[in-house]
Design a protein that fits this description.
The protein is mainly β and 216 residues long. The chain folds into 2 domains: 29 residues; 184 residues, Sandwich (Jelly Rolls). The strands form 3 sheets. Strands 1, 3, 4, 6, 11, 12, 13 and 15 form an 8-stranded antiparallel sheet that branches. It has a 5-stranded antiparallel sheet with strand order 2-5-14-7-8, with no helix packed on it. It is globular. The termini are far apart.
Protein backbone atom coordinates (compact mmCIF):
# COMPACT_ATOMS: atom_id res chain seq x y z
CA UNK A 1 0.00 0.00 0.00
CA UNK A 2 2.80 2.39 0.85
CA UNK A 3 4.46 1.74 -2.52
CA UNK A 4 1.19 2.29 -4.39
CA UNK A 5 0.53 5.48 -2.42
CA UNK A 6 4.01 6.73 -3.21
CA UNK A 7 3.46 6.12 -6.93
CA UNK A 8 0.10 7.90 -6.79
CA UNK A 9 1.64 10.85 -4.97
CA UNK A 10 4.51 11.04 -7.44
CA UNK A 11 2.06 10.95 -10.33
CA UNK A 12 -0.01 13.70 -8.76
CA UNK A 13 3.07 15.89 -8.25
CA UNK A 14 4.25 15.33 -11.82
CA UNK A 15 0.79 16.16 -13.12
CA UNK A 16 0.69 19.33 -11.05
CA UNK A 17 4.12 20.44 -12.29
CA UNK A 18 3.17 19.67 -15.89
CA UNK A 19 -0.06 21.63 -15.50
CA UNK A 20 1.78 24.61 -14.04
CA UNK A 21 4.32 24.49 -16.88
CA UNK A 22 1.55 24.41 -19.49
CA UNK A 23 -0.17 27.32 -17.78
CA UNK A 24 3.03 29.38 -17.83
CA UNK A 25 3.59 28.57 -21.50
CA UNK A 26 0.10 29.82 -22.34
CA UNK A 27 1.03 33.32 -21.18
CA UNK A 28 2.91 35.64 -23.54
CA UNK A 29 5.49 37.86 -21.90
CA UNK A 30 4.74 41.30 -23.30
CA UNK A 31 7.71 43.20 -21.89
CA UNK A 32 11.30 41.92 -21.95
CA UNK A 33 12.44 44.19 -19.10
CA UNK A 34 15.19 45.79 -21.19
CA UNK A 35 13.53 47.91 -23.86
CA UNK A 36 10.24 48.50 -25.66
CA UNK A 37 10.68 45.83 -28.32
CA UNK A 38 7.20 44.73 -29.44
CA UNK A 39 5.64 48.07 -28.48
CA UNK A 40 5.03 51.27 -30.46
CA UNK A 41 4.56 54.72 -28.97
CA UNK A 42 2.58 57.30 -30.90
CA UNK A 43 5.06 59.89 -29.52
CA UNK A 44 2.38 62.55 -29.26
CA UNK A 45 4.68 63.70 -26.48
CA UNK A 46 8.19 62.23 -27.01
CA UNK A 47 9.99 60.18 -24.36
CA UNK A 48 6.94 59.57 -22.17
CA UNK A 49 7.77 55.84 -22.08
CA UNK A 50 11.19 54.81 -20.79
CA UNK A 51 12.66 51.60 -19.39
CA UNK A 52 15.01 51.07 -16.45
CA UNK A 53 15.59 48.15 -14.08
CA UNK A 54 12.87 46.01 -15.63
CA UNK A 55 10.22 48.72 -15.29
CA UNK A 56 8.30 50.87 -17.78
CA UNK A 57 8.12 54.44 -16.53
CA UNK A 58 5.26 56.55 -17.90
CA UNK A 59 5.84 60.24 -17.30
CA UNK A 60 5.75 63.65 -18.94
CA UNK A 61 2.51 64.11 -20.87
CA UNK A 62 -0.12 62.56 -23.07
CA UNK A 63 1.03 59.69 -25.26
CA UNK A 64 0.05 56.06 -25.76
CA UNK A 65 2.14 52.93 -26.06
CA UNK A 66 0.59 50.15 -28.16
CA UNK A 67 1.53 46.47 -27.96
CA UNK A 68 2.42 45.08 -31.40
CA UNK A 69 4.00 41.76 -30.48
CA UNK A 70 6.91 40.00 -32.10
CA UNK A 71 5.28 39.99 -35.53
CA UNK A 72 3.71 43.45 -35.29
CA UNK A 73 0.23 41.97 -35.55
CA UNK A 74 -0.90 41.59 -31.94
CA UNK A 75 -4.66 41.19 -31.80
CA UNK A 76 -6.86 39.79 -29.04
CA UNK A 77 -10.57 39.15 -28.68
CA UNK A 78 -11.03 36.89 -25.64
CA UNK A 79 -8.04 37.08 -23.34
CA UNK A 80 -6.56 37.43 -19.87
CA UNK A 81 -4.07 40.19 -19.11
CA UNK A 82 -2.05 40.77 -15.96
CA UNK A 83 0.55 43.30 -14.86
CA UNK A 84 2.02 44.96 -11.82
CA UNK A 85 1.33 48.68 -11.59
CA UNK A 86 2.46 51.47 -9.28
CA UNK A 87 0.99 54.96 -9.09
CA UNK A 88 2.58 58.02 -7.52
CA UNK A 89 0.80 60.94 -5.82
CA UNK A 90 -1.44 62.72 -8.34
CA UNK A 91 -0.70 60.35 -11.22
CA UNK A 92 -3.21 59.18 -13.81
CA UNK A 93 -2.86 56.45 -16.43
CA UNK A 94 -4.82 53.65 -18.01
CA UNK A 95 -4.69 50.29 -19.77
CA UNK A 96 -6.64 50.07 -23.02
CA UNK A 97 -7.85 46.86 -24.64
CA UNK A 98 -9.52 46.09 -27.99
CA UNK A 99 -7.80 49.22 -29.27
CA UNK A 100 -5.54 50.05 -32.21
CA UNK A 101 -2.66 52.37 -32.97
CA UNK A 102 -3.67 56.02 -33.09
CA UNK A 103 -1.26 58.85 -33.83
CA UNK A 104 -2.70 61.35 -31.34
CA UNK A 105 -5.51 62.08 -28.85
CA UNK A 106 -7.16 59.59 -26.52
CA UNK A 107 -7.72 56.23 -28.27
CA UNK A 108 -11.22 56.17 -29.73
CA UNK A 109 -11.40 52.40 -30.17
CA UNK A 110 -11.78 50.02 -27.26
CA UNK A 111 -12.05 50.38 -23.50
CA UNK A 112 -9.86 52.03 -20.88
CA UNK A 113 -9.19 50.35 -17.53
CA UNK A 114 -8.48 53.19 -15.16
CA UNK A 115 -5.23 53.64 -13.21
CA UNK A 116 -5.64 56.44 -10.67
CA UNK A 117 -5.10 56.38 -6.93
CA UNK A 118 -4.98 60.06 -5.95
CA UNK A 119 -5.44 62.17 -9.09
CA UNK A 120 -8.31 64.68 -8.90
CA UNK A 121 -10.37 62.59 -11.33
CA UNK A 122 -12.98 60.80 -9.19
CA UNK A 123 -12.78 57.74 -11.46
CA UNK A 124 -10.27 55.49 -9.73
CA UNK A 125 -8.14 52.39 -10.30
CA UNK A 126 -10.02 49.25 -11.31
CA UNK A 127 -12.91 50.90 -13.12
CA UNK A 128 -13.97 50.40 -16.73
CA UNK A 129 -13.70 54.06 -17.62
CA UNK A 130 -17.01 55.74 -18.38
CA UNK A 131 -18.82 52.40 -18.39
CA UNK A 132 -18.53 50.98 -14.87
CA UNK A 133 -16.40 53.32 -12.78
CA UNK A 134 -14.85 52.95 -9.36
CA UNK A 135 -15.67 56.29 -7.78
CA UNK A 136 -13.70 58.23 -5.16
CA UNK A 137 -12.15 55.37 -3.16
CA UNK A 138 -9.28 53.67 -4.97
CA UNK A 139 -8.41 50.02 -4.22
CA UNK A 140 -4.75 50.90 -4.89
CA UNK A 141 -2.18 52.88 -2.91
CA UNK A 142 0.43 55.30 -4.22
CA UNK A 143 4.05 54.10 -4.18
CA UNK A 144 2.97 50.47 -3.76
CA UNK A 145 2.94 47.83 -6.48
CA UNK A 146 -0.46 46.24 -7.08
CA UNK A 147 -1.69 43.45 -9.36
CA UNK A 148 -3.99 44.49 -12.20
CA UNK A 149 -5.86 41.83 -14.16
CA UNK A 150 -8.28 42.11 -17.07
CA UNK A 151 -10.37 39.22 -18.41
CA UNK A 152 -12.59 39.41 -21.48
CA UNK A 153 -14.79 36.52 -22.60
CA UNK A 154 -17.48 37.22 -25.15
CA UNK A 155 -19.52 40.14 -23.82
CA UNK A 156 -18.19 39.74 -20.27
CA UNK A 157 -15.40 41.91 -18.78
CA UNK A 158 -13.91 41.46 -15.29
CA UNK A 159 -11.27 43.72 -13.74
CA UNK A 160 -9.43 42.79 -10.55
CA UNK A 161 -6.99 44.63 -8.31
CA UNK A 162 -4.90 42.42 -6.04
CA UNK A 163 -7.31 39.56 -6.74
CA UNK A 164 -10.42 41.51 -5.76
CA UNK A 165 -13.05 42.21 -8.43
CA UNK A 166 -13.55 45.94 -8.98
CA UNK A 167 -15.60 45.85 -12.18
CA UNK A 168 -17.82 43.09 -13.55
CA UNK A 169 -19.70 44.14 -16.68
CA UNK A 170 -21.58 42.34 -19.42
CA UNK A 171 -22.13 44.34 -22.57
CA UNK A 172 -25.86 44.37 -23.39
CA UNK A 173 -26.83 42.81 -26.70
CA UNK A 174 -28.36 46.11 -27.75
CA UNK A 175 -25.30 48.13 -26.62
CA UNK A 176 -24.84 51.33 -28.63
CA UNK A 177 -21.98 53.38 -27.13
CA UNK A 178 -22.81 56.37 -29.31
CA UNK A 179 -26.09 56.62 -27.40
CA UNK A 180 -25.00 55.30 -24.00
CA UNK A 181 -21.75 57.24 -23.64
CA UNK A 182 -20.86 60.84 -24.45
CA UNK A 183 -17.95 61.12 -26.91
CA UNK A 184 -17.09 57.40 -26.58
CA UNK A 185 -18.65 55.80 -29.64
CA UNK A 186 -15.78 53.29 -29.93
CA UNK A 187 -16.46 51.76 -26.50
CA UNK A 188 -17.70 48.37 -27.68
CA UNK A 189 -16.25 44.90 -27.49
CA UNK A 190 -14.59 43.72 -30.67
CA UNK A 191 -10.89 42.88 -30.89
CA UNK A 192 -7.59 44.71 -30.89
CA UNK A 193 -4.47 45.24 -28.84
CA UNK A 194 -3.35 46.58 -25.46
CA UNK A 195 -2.12 50.13 -24.89
CA UNK A 196 -0.67 52.02 -21.91
CA UNK A 197 -1.59 55.63 -21.34
CA UNK A 198 0.54 58.63 -20.51
CA UNK A 199 -1.92 61.18 -19.17
CA UNK A 200 -0.50 64.59 -18.26
CA UNK A 201 2.83 66.35 -17.55
CA UNK A 202 2.56 65.90 -13.77
CA UNK A 203 1.72 62.20 -13.91
CA UNK A 204 4.24 59.39 -13.29
CA UNK A 205 3.16 55.74 -13.27
CA UNK A 206 5.11 52.48 -13.45
CA UNK A 207 4.42 49.09 -15.07
CA UNK A 208 6.23 45.75 -14.99
CA UNK A 209 5.66 42.02 -15.51
CA UNK A 210 3.06 42.38 -18.26
CA UNK A 211 1.55 39.12 -19.58
CA UNK A 212 -1.34 38.15 -21.81
CA UNK A 213 -2.92 34.91 -22.97
CA UNK A 214 -5.69 34.30 -25.52
CA UNK A 215 -8.88 32.54 -24.44
CA UNK A 216 -11.17 30.45 -26.66
Amino acid sequence: MKTRSAFLLAGWVLGLVAGQAADLQAWTKMFNGRDLTGWKSNDEKPDVFTVADGIIKVSGGRAHLFFEGADGKANFKNFEFKAKVMTTPGSNSGIYFHTQFQAKDWPTKGFECQVNTSHTDVKKTGGLYGVLDVLNNAPSKDNEWFDYSIKVEGRHVVLQINGQTTADWTQPESWDPATALKNMSGRKLSEGTIALQGHDPKSTTYYKELFIRPLP
